[in-house]
Amino acid sequence: MIRDAYPRHLRLQALTTLIAVLTSGCLGHFYEIPRTELERLAQTPPQERGQSVYAVQQFTTAWEPEAAPPWIPTEEPPPGYSLHLHGYWVPSFYGDFGEPYYAPPPYNPPELVHDATPVSGSSSGGSVSTGGGGSVGNIGDIKDVGVLLAVAVVVGVAVGVGLAATEGARYEGQVAVHPHHPLHLLDTHGAQRIVALDELTLADLSNIDSATLSGEEGAGMWLRGAAPLNRKGFSYQFGAGYDSLALPGMNQRSLGYHFAFGYYPAKKFGLLAHTRMQFDDSFYNVRLGLEAQWSPIVLWRLHLGPFVGGGQSWSASAGWLPDTHEQRPYVSFGALAELEISTRLGLTFRWTQDWLPTATPDTRNFISSWSVGLAVY
């Protein structure tokens, strides 16, 4: 069966690929602030800037700025501030946020530190042949194709799991920091500097390439709620389920896999290259085409909508199945349900209907299939 379709060295190569994908980038404590959010913050009253900041968690493999100077706790709280766990004064209403997700390190006074009240944050300025087959399927050739498809499935799943564990798991949404939290600015020439959040001005944003906050600086960081599912941008989707191959007088049903990669120009509409693979020792069935997805209905975390697609299919069968070797177009449509897991990750359920318009009359009926998987955005 499928387990025996590919040799041990191919399994080891697939395992190596999986490990490389999963360890290619780890989520870190730096959070990038989009340009539009920076402009909004620069025009917000300084004392209110830290309580709600839209930020996107970055990977440790990305650029990391120089550390900000340590803060010096003051003996008395300024007006409207209360004591924090590690001795730092923060606005009193921050107590409603609970414990910070990132707690600041305990204060260790250096020999020379710039003093500031209530916080010291150094400030330097204010991304069928059509229609049917002529040749008889060969069982040896079918097994060889099965080996290639099995490897493709293992690699595709490895990539999907790696993306789900990194890109799909990273935080994107509202964070809270001290109003005077250090903000790391990197300009288009590669120079970096630190500006306190409550001292940020629109002039500071001139020629800025990126801006980040560290959860391990200042008085820590609170994660106040991830943003809703955001599909806009590139997407990778994969899954497995029950698929069908139309054969003369019968439909061969078995485990099938699907993979897709494409782009969502809007949060609810996307275009993807899509493939489905179904194979065993006696047959294979591969579809490759384009698909349009639309999810207009949102019920809490559940997103519903249709999809439609089409392309080319290749299939062959032999052995105990009818001897066939087909290459023909297909049309597919169906329903997609997606459960929001995070801002960039969804659990998907697909119900699909396929139609082979150029097939012979005994294989031209609609064929249904279903699958469960993940979508990473």
Described by strand count, sense and barrel closure, the largest sheet is: 8 strands, antiparallel, barrel
Shape: elongated
Query: What percentage of the residues does DSSP assign to strands (E)?
Result: 35-45%
Q: Briefly note the structural class of the backbone.
A: mainly beta
Provide the number of structural domains. Answer: 2
Count the beta strands. Answer: 18
Mean pLDDT: 84
Total of DSSP H or I helical runs spanning 4+ residues: 3
Low-confidence stretches: 1-7, 17-24, 112-137
Give the fraction of residues assigned to helices. 10-25%
**What is the terminal separation in angstroms?**
34 Å
Biggest sheet strand order reads 10-11-12-13-15-16-17-18
Order of helices and strands: HEHEEEHEEEEEEEEEEEEEE
Which secondary structure elements does this structure contain, and how are they paired or packed?
Blueprint: H1 8-22, E1 27-32, H2 35-42, E2 53-59, E3 81-83, E4 89-91, H3 139-165, E5 172-176, E6 182-187, E7 192-196, E8 208-214, E9 222-226, E10 233-247, E11 250-266, E12 269-279, E13 283-294, E14 297-299, E15 302-317, E16 324-342, E17 345-355, E18 367-376
Helix pairs in contact: 1-3
Q: What tags apply to this protein structure?
A:
single chain, 377 residues, mainly beta, Porin, 2 domains, 8-stranded antiparallel beta barrel, 7-stranded antiparallel sheet, 3 helices, 18 strands, 43% strand, disordered N terminus
Structure overview:
The protein is 13% helix and 43% strand. It is mostly beta strands and 377 residues long. The protein has 2 domains: 27-126 and 170-226, no CATH class; 229-376, Beta Barrel (Porin), CATH 2.40.160.20. The strands form 3 sheets. It has an 8-stranded antiparallel barrel. It has a 7-stranded antiparallel beta sheet with strand order 7-6-8-1-2-5-9, covered by helices on one side.
